[in-house]
Amino acid sequence: MPKSNLTIGADPEFFLYSQTHDRIVPSCGLLGGTKEEPMALGRRGYFVQEDNVMAEYNIPPCPTGDKFGSCITKGRDLVLAHARERSGDDSLVAFRGTYAELSPDMLQHPGAMRFGCSPDFDAYQMGQPCPPIDPDRLTGNNGVLRFAGGHVHLGYNLPEIPPQVVAMFCDLMLGAYAIAYGLDRQGPRRQRYGTPGRYRPTPYGIEYRTLGNHWTLDTHSAIVIGRRALMTLRFLQNANKETIREMYMETPWTALREAIQSESESDCLKILEGATERMLAEQAA
User: Fold this and answer.
1) Residue of 96, 119, 110, 112 whose CA lies nearest to 146
2) What does each of the 285 residues of the chain score in pLDDT, given as a tens digit?
3) What are the boundaries of each domain within the chain?
4) Which site from 47, 77, 159, 280 is most exposed, i.e. has the minimal number of CB atoms within 10 Å?
5) Domain 3-284 carries which CATH code?
6) DSSP secondary structure of the chain
7) Any idea of the CA torsion for 90, 59, 52, 207, to the nearest 10 degrees?
């Protein structure tokens, strides 16, 4: 299969923040677009939707990490322009946070109590569904918690590799890397939506759902995540079965899972040592 058949995409979420009013602005009732019918943003492949109180957007599938990074930034800029026009608030920006605590008066719109119904799956439990999140338990110290993710969509054709194995390799090459290099501090999201090995199977591959949205707010970070996602897919596509099996067997998955769950930079970095070099060396051979 040619490398051009490998693609990466994303549906980042972020909170709208009004600099003028110094507060989060819920997206529900403002942006338009739903998961069933996202709203086109005037550029091919870019769409926006209201996801609870967050703004969520889709980018077109990308063949390179550089293109991926530029599309992440372009999509966010399109959403902000759309939100400013609709709200009349030119000070709206993307809130730099994976979670926010909102007061009850900010959750009056019905959309603020609407949560996704599609289950996530746990790669470390052989692809069993993750326990559902109880909306009634999303309380923080100063309000009601809401979370923003940075899900990566991986497009490939690897019929011999189970989707949970692809998700585990994403933990190794994306999840651990993002923590080791300061790109994924999630706070209370980690215990809910940011657990290790969290994914959904898709017709084109998988949606890797462990990452928060921090990396999506910076073009360079998005490029790095995109490059590493493609590096992972190329390894799984091009390495011989024995090499993939050896790397799978040699990876300390239990320690990796614990390092991601605890967001330990040192443990993630230790596990990463050699893994990246091995993938690069395999692709250069």
Assistant:
1) 112
2) 344 599 999 999 999 999 999 999 999 999 999 989 999 999 999 999 999 999 999 999 999 999 999 999 999 999 999 999 999 999 999 999 999 999 998 998 988 788 776 899 999 999 999 998 888 788 888 899 999 999 999 999 999 999 999 999 999 999 999 999 999 999 999 999 999 999 999 999 999 999 999 999 999 999 999 999 999 999 999 999 999 999 999 999 999 999 999 999 999 999 998 788 878 777 765
3) 3-284
4) 159
5) 3.30.590
6) --GGG-EEEE--EE-EEETTTTEEE--TTTS---SSSPEE-SSTT-EEEEETTEEEEE---BSSHHHHHHHHHHHHHHHHHHHHHHH--TTEEE---SEEEE-GGGG-SGGGG----SPPEEGGGTTEEPPPP-GGG-B-SSSEEEE-B--EEEE---TTS-HHHHHHHHIIIIIHHHHHTTS---GGGTTTT--TTEEEEETTEEEE---BSGGGGSHHHHHHHHHHHHHHHHHHHHS-HHHHHHHHHHS-HHHHHHHHHHT-HHHHHHHHTTHHHHHHHHHH-
7) -150
Residues in the chain: 285
